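As a warm-up, study this chain.
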Amino acid sequence: MPDCNGAVGEVLVHRTYIMQNQISPARPGDQMSFAPDAFRHHPGLISKIRDPETSFFRDLDLTEVDEKWAEAGEVHVPRYPDEVREAMRKEALGAYWGSDIWVFAYGSLMWDPAVYFAEVRRARLPGYHRSFCLVDRSGGRGTSEAPGLMAGLDEGGDCDGLVFRLAAETADRESEIIWRREMMAPCYKAVFAPVETAHGEVQALCFVADPAAEMIDTDLSHADRVRYLATGSGHLGTSLEYLERVVAGCHELRIDDPELEALLAEVYAAQGKDCSSLCA
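Now compare it with the structure written out below.
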């Protein structure tokens, strides 16, 4: 499903695309397609962020996704019709048309944004935290008998991540790519919220968990979260593998999330495993 960012997308994509949440270091020269000074605040990120042209999500074909899902005989996960999704985007971004748009990333969107941005900053989103609240019963990383979990942004606390600035002249095209990925199905709400950076506060587009959505359960007990992550499995892999990739991605980008690592340790313990090598 869309990964943290993109967790719903992962559930809907076909079974041959299993590894989209892994970090794929950019090849020499890949970042030449970005604005010359896009990484001026954090040049160390140049090799950590995938070239958009190599991203599966750059030209995501939702009709093909539907067809592949049907061919696989998987549980149908309803998504927004294209015209409805696009109307939602235009309404949400209405006040920002013709302007730069900042987008907050907290999961795989950090290392695989699939868009061309003019600037990237390390950022903190107050009022929300990473939460494993997206329940997969459709066969991706869990089933109705043994549900799986993926991440979303839930209210409370704060969340460290990255924020990307889409330049005004390309914001329409680039925001549509992100919207198609994050808002393909009813799971998230798109909100603009203040995001803190070392270079000042910005209002950023954030995709947060929608408690009213069928796939979102923000009231899930901690014990059930651990159990779902320890036992959830489907044709895309296990929920534990998803958690491991998010933790590894945060490590690679030097994003600190002690609660995420503690959760991984608990899931490992539930399986009788040792996480010292990954959580070191």
